[in-house]
C-alpha cells in the first residue's frame, strides 16, 4: 500500500498520535532499559540497558517507520531478581530516557512509564510532561501505573494501597494533570488525595494534552483506562501461546472498546509480542529453545513468582517458561509466520503491537529487512518513511 504525496501531506498536519493511528496495525518497540530486558536467560546476546544502546534501538526503529517506543519502570533491590545474571539489577529511568531521546529523534512517539503513587504530585508530572512535549514536538506520552509490589511501596516508605483504591487515586491525579495541561488560568483544587492552590504550567503540551497510556485488566483498571487513556496495553487472558491468546482476546478487546464507546471515547489496544524470527521455522524454534535451555534458574523463578503473585489481574495465565522467554504473546517462526501472527492478533481486536526481542539490534534489523515489507504487502502498515524516501 503506497503512501502518496497527499497522504504524506496529511500526516504532516496530523498530531503524532493521529498519524500513527492511520496505520492498520500500529507498531511499537519495547525498549530494553533494564539489564536482561524481558528474558532471564544467559543465552548469547548483546542487548544492553545503557542509554547509548537504547538510543541506537530508537533511532533504528524511527528509521524503519515504527510509531512509538516505550520503556517500563521498576524499583529493584540489590541483585534485581537474583541469579548469576542479577536480572534487571541495572535499570535506567524511562522518564529521563525518553527526555534524552527527544533530542535524537524527529517523528517517533516516546512513552514513559511512571508510578504516579510513589510520591508524585500532579503538578510535577504535568510540568515535566509538558516540557518533554515541547522538547519533542508533541511526541511524549505517559504510561500511568499505580504499582502493586509491596517491596516497591516500602522503598518509598509507603504502605501498600488496596487494588481498586489505587485507581480511585489515579483518576484524581490524572484529572488534575489534564486540567493543568488544558486550562489557561490558575487552578485551585482541594482534592481527596492531592491539593493545589493557584497552580499553573506553561508552556502547554502540543494539542492541550500529552498521550496517555495504561495497562489494565481489572474492572477498576479498565474503568480508569477507558476514561483517560488513548492507548491501552492489554495482556492475553490465556497466557503467551499465540493460539490460546487469539481465542481469548476477542472478548477481552470487545469489552474494552464497548466500555469506551459508552462514554464517547475511542481507544486503541496494543499488546506486547516477543518476536523470534528467522529465515526458517527450525532456526526460530532453535533460538526459542536456546533461551529456555540457558535460563538462569534463580532469576527465572523469582521473575515468574513476582507476576504470578500480587493483586494485579494481568499475566496470571503465563507459565514460568513463557516468562523466561518474555513478552505477553510469543510469535515464533519465519517472516511470513510472524506477519500471519500479527494478522491473527489484529483479527482478535488488537490495534497495535509493541514488540520486544531477545537480541534487540540484530533482531530489529532482521525485522526491518524481512518482516516490515511483508506487513506492508499484507495491508498492516502504510508505506513507511524509509521506503518513501528511497
From TrEMBL:
Q: InterPro entries per the record? A: Luciferase-like_dom (IPR011251), Luciferase-like_sf (IPR036661), SsuD_RutA_monooxygenase (IPR050172)
- In Pfam terms, one family for this protein is Bac_luciferase
Q: Which parts of the sequence belong to the Luciferase-like domain? A: 27-351
| Any one GO molecular function term | oxidoreductase activity, acting on paired donors, with incorporation or reduction of molecular oxygen
Name assigned to this protein: FMNH2-dependent dimethyl sulfone monooxygenase
* Organism of this sequence: Hansschlegelia beijingensis
Arranged from A to Z, the UniProt key words for this protein are:
Flavoprotein, FMN, Monooxygenase, Oxidoreductase
